[in-house]
Design goal:
Blueprint: H1 19-29, E1 34-38, E2 45-49, E3 52-56, H2 61-73, E4 76-80, E5 95-98, E6 105-110, H3 114-133, H4 144-165, E7 170-175, H5 182-189, E8 194-198, H6 206-209, H7 215-222, E9 227-230, H8 233-246, E10 250-252, E11 257-260, E12 263-269, H9 276-283, H10 286-298, E13 305-310, H11 319-332, E14 340-345, H12 354-374, E15 382-385, H13 391-400, E16 403-406, H14 415-423, E17 430-434, E18 447-449, H15 454-466, H16 469-485, H17 488-501
Parallel strand pairs: 1-4, 1-7, 4-6, 7-8, 8-9, 9-12, 13-14, 13-16, 14-15, 16-17, 17-18
Antiparallel strand pairs: 2-3, 5-6, 10-11, 11-12
Length: about 500
């Protein structure tokens, strides 16, 4: 089976994509078309605290990755308005110009009731589709009321898109599993709209997906797109095999295309990335240097070995597994006690869902247990920072760390790994990366680990700590070259080039 893959291809003849290159593509090939991005999560959240309205960037890899694309392309980003001051800053159509410091595109907010949030987001999206698509041994929960709310919210988003499009020519770029029905709903009202959708999480094998009671409707919705993108070719293969088994379709494996009812959907892999140059520039700023000094003062650090994990607190991220590996390391190699400090950074997520409540309790218990077991008067092995950290603080931790652990049990890509690499302007530091991430296909100079194999995991941490400086720097230089070349603009350029070449 041949799957079209941009993992190793230069997109549209360019080896290194830049913001300017993406802008050139948009102005030359997409001229006259309105560009719309649609996602559940918004790129900027307005909150009110102490009588002042603040604009925050949410803890979301998706929105952090797409914001530079929208800054380049302009257009409209449609998303759920979730901030408690979001309504205070928009016009009568829910519009606000963003980013606040350099407005370059329009954010349109969709308003959801608490009931809709519960059924669509907490319910079907994250208790059904999320565990269905991740091999993390958490069974999905299929609730018909959640499904009905999911359908209704997809219709709300479709209404917002169609309102923005009006009678214009438009390209709509849909994000992720929250909006699986959207393209079909849009085209039912306006068949001239070109749609692409990127599925940011893994696509499971057909046997796993077929347990979904509404699987055929989800597949039909996704096949409403002109292009459907995944991170890696393996997920494309799973999707093609799933539609072959569940729907009456014709599949052209040479083109990686699915035809149904006279319509064709191209299925492609586009590994997402980050804005390497922007992160590298920000990492060099004096504010980050000051942040490193503040981190050292706040936690009274001197010459300790520093490890970090940066995650949304989710059961797919393997956080308990990395803690158990650290526990094993301290037991087997006691010489690292009082020498190594591991910072776990992250905000609790989806805390109203039972599985996430259990995960947070498990993490709290592990941190307490391991710290009690090894801590001394002035040293704790694990420092759990459970708060929203601004970008400057995250860069400070990334620059300070001797190693970063990404131990996902299953991950479509994982942008934390690429952000860590981009931040290391000193060409130093070691990335320990789970084999079960999409990023592991690209970042082969990382130390790859099976997070379930705790003993080997502990040995890998030891290897990272003891790695000679020359080897560390050589590996990091190669990692940085990979991320620099395969940046977010190449990802967007690949998708938009394919859209521009469609004969519609």
């Amino acid at each position: 089976m041949r799957i079209f893959n941009t993992d190793t291809m230069s997109t549209a003849g360019e080896a290194n994509w830049t913001r300017e290159g993406l802008q050139h593509l948009v102005t030359t090939k997409l001229a006259g078309r309105l560009f719309i991005v649609v996602s559940n999560r918004e790129p900027y959240i307005h909150t009110s605290a102490g009588g002042e309205i603040q604009c925050l960037v949410p803890a979301s890899g998706l929105t952090v990755a797409l914001d530079p694309v929208m800054r380049s392309c302009g257009g409209v980003w449609i998303a759920h308005g979730s901030g408690n001051a979001d309504r205070d800053v928009v016009d009568e159509k829910g519009h606000v110009s963003v980013p606040p410091d350099e407005p370059s595109y329009t954010l349109r907010r969709v308003w959801l009731t608490k009931e809709e949030e519960e059924g669509y987001y907490l319910g079907f999206s994250n208790q059904a589709l999320w565990p269905l698509c991740h091999i993390a041994y958490t069974p999905p929960n299929f609730d018909e009321s959640h499904w009905n709310t999911y359908r209704r919210v997809n219709q709300l988003f479709a209404g917002a898109v169609l309102d923005e499009v009006g009678d214009k020519q438009a390209i709509v770029f849909i994000q992720d599993y929250h909006l699986a029905l959207l393209s079909r709903l849009i085209k039912a009202k306006n068949a001239r709209v070109i749609t692409a959708q990127f599925w940011h999480i893994p696509w499971p094998n057909p046997e796993a997906f077929r347990i979904c009671p509404w699987g055929e409707e989800i597949l039909d919705g996704l096949l409403g797109n002109n292009i459907l993108g995944f991170h890696i070719g393996y997920h494309c293969e799973n999707f093609l095999e799933t539609v072959r088994r569940m729907l009456e379709v014709k599949i052209d494996y040479e083109r990686s295309a699915v035809s149904r009812g006279g319509e064709t959907t191209l299925v492609r892999s586009f590994p997402i990335s980050v804005d390497f140059d922007r992160i590298a520039i920000d990492a060099r700023r004096q504010e980050v240097v000051k942040e490193i000094e503040q981190i050292r003062r706040r936690w009274r650090l001197s010459d300790e070995i520093i490890g970090i994990g940066i995650d949304r607190i989710d059961y797919t991220k393997g956080i308990p597994h990395r803690f158990r590996a650290l526990d094993k390391l301290f037991t087997k190699y006691p010489e690292y006690q009082k020498r190594l400090v591991f910072f776990q950074l992250g905000e609790p997520s989806r805390v109203h869902i039972k599985k996430y409540k259990e995960l947070n309790a498990e993490i709290d218990d592990l941190v307490e247990e391991i710290n009690w077991k090894y801590e001394s008067d002035n040293w704790r092995p694990i420092i759990y920072v459970r708060e929203h950290l601004p970008p400057t603080a995250l860069l400070g931790f990334q620059r300070l760390a001797d190693f970063c652990i990404v131990s996902s049990l299953h991950d479509g890509m994982n942008l934390v790994a690429k952000e860590f690499v981009s931040s290391r302007v000193d060409n130093d530091g070691v990335l320990i990366l789970s084999r079960f991430t999409g990023a592991a296909r690209e970042l082969t100079e990382a130390l790859l680990v099976n997070p379930y194999a705790i003993d080997d995991f502990a040995e890998t941490i030891k290897r990272a700590i003891e790695m000679p400086r020359g080897e560390r720097q050589e590996r990091m230089r190669k990692l940085r070259q990979i991320v620099r070349q395969n940046n977010i603009y190449r990802w967007a350029g690949g998708i938009l080039s394919e859209l521009a070449d469609l004969k519609l």
